[in-house]
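Reminder: ligand-aware prediction takes two inputs, not one.
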Amino acid sequence: MCLIRYRLRLSKWRDSKMHGIWVGVCTPGNEPHMLPILWQNSSLTHWQISYCILALYTLCDLQFSIKLLLKSKNTDHLKFFTKALDVENGLTVTRICACVSQVTFPVRVFKLLGVETLMVTNAAGSLADSYSCGDIMIICDHINFPGLAGLNPLNGPNDDKFGPRFPPMSGVYDKSLRKMAFDICKNMGVSQYVQEGVYCMVGGPNFESIAEARFLHRLGVDAVGMSTAPEVLVASHCGMRVFGLSLITNKVVKSYEDNESVNHEAVLEVSKMRSEMLQTLVTELISRMDINNNTA
Ligand SMILES: O=P(O)(O)O[C@H]1O[C@H](CO)[C@@H](O)[C@H]1O
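Here is what comes back for the chain with 1-O-phosphono-alpha-D-ribofuranose:
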């Protein structure tokens, strides 16, 4: 539903220095936020590109941003890309579809397009007692519950072109990007809202029972949500650098004495409240990453 509020504009944004294309993500009445997209000569079908755009829309809606680094201009693909932007009716597909291989498909498309860094954001409930609603948690690690139970996007024959059969999952969330994010938050004067912690993905779509919440808390989980781990897993498998943020939208109920209960509307409300701060953080992170890349 919110997805419709966002528009991706392609035509105007070109950056000759980077030999590529910029995509501007606009909200009504706001200046566009720039996402650099440089195009690589690849043989993607129109359908694949549409899927990629679909993912971009989803990402933007979730305050989930992305850095795409492609390597050359290809006007044929550019036409496809522009055309694919019209596919608004398909936007809900990734949210409805529960299949981890479909949800992670765009990550591999991005990889083929030359994407080097994946930035993920999500809404999550806090289990850590020191967290408050509206905090931003920089993800330092995750527990992939569906993955541990066998629901893993890397199931099936391994495609060695992307990565190894048994990829390591230690150190997935890039340390230098995490530090950069902390520094940016300090400069923004919002350090008091920033945490670092462990995200746990559960299958959902229900919120946790009290016993489940206590169980996760004892496992060392700081925030829980229903997404992110599969995309991160696939990105890491194919050698992409990963950075992740959780916006703490609610406290997970852990006590039988507590009469509160979480609901999706409250989650959306907090997301809206913090969207500007998250956008500033992500935009600044992207621009600093550019500086790093250019000077590297
Ligand atoms: O993880 P994202 O997609 O940000 O959304 C989170 O918020 C929704 C529940 O309100 C769930 O989909 C949960 O995963």
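DSSP finds nine helices and ten strands in the chain. Confidence is low (pLDDT under 50) at residues 1-98, 291-296. We will return to this case in the review session.
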